[in-house]
Amino acid sequence: MKKYLLACTALFLLTGCSAKSTESTQASSNKTPLSSSSSQKLHSSTSSSTAMPQTIKKFASGDYSAYTGTYKSELDSSLIISADKIHYYAPDQTLVGSVVLNQKTFSKQTTSPSFSRTYAFNTETITVTFNDTGDKITSISLSKDIYNNNQATIFKYSTAETSLPFTEQEALKILQSSKGFSDDDSYFLATKYENSYIIQVVSKAIRAQGGSGTVGLYQVFSDGTNFLVKNNPTTGAYDKIE
């Protein structure tokens, strides 16, 4: 009888242990594991929030087509961005030169919002900052600007216009080519007038003899049109000489 009781007790203990083990296994199995798809979604979400936008990648390779337009500073200097070039103009709209942004001039970048790319420019640096989605330039900063007492200058989007300004140099080239004037025998005094230039041509030879040397006053337009004019002292306008 004792043997029988001991055998039953042992069987009962084994059964209880088995049940607990089964419950424990089931409870463990009821915990929902992180599926591979969930893991991929989390990774994708994290990656997309910090991925460099495609438009900025194109900008880095020299394709500026997503950001074309005129960016102006408070000094009235400007950066004109076309699809593949950037031109820098002084406050008087004379061309300073091209801004070269490539791997040779590249300095550093910010790869998370807000995105930015910094390049060497002459003895300064120029930093282009983009919005969080990378589809717009929020500002362009020139670290040391000779037209701003060597202080930083900020350029911001102004207009979609990308045509280059009509400059004094271009007006002089048009007049010299049209009339045959040269720097060897003449001085040129140019004044911006509306959408044209008024250029006073002064003969060096006549000036050397004591005269005023003025041989003509010309109005020059960007399309190449040019003609003699005279100043109207009453209105201040320039009238064409027929």
TrEMBL record:
Top-rank lineage group of the source organism: Bacteria
Disordered as annotated region, ranges: 23-49
Biased composition (Low complexity): 28-49
Alphabetized UniProt keyword annotations: Lipoprotein, Signal
Signal peptide, first to last residue: 1-19
Protein name (record): Membrane lipoprotein lipid attachment site-containing protein
Organism field: Lactococcus taiwanensis
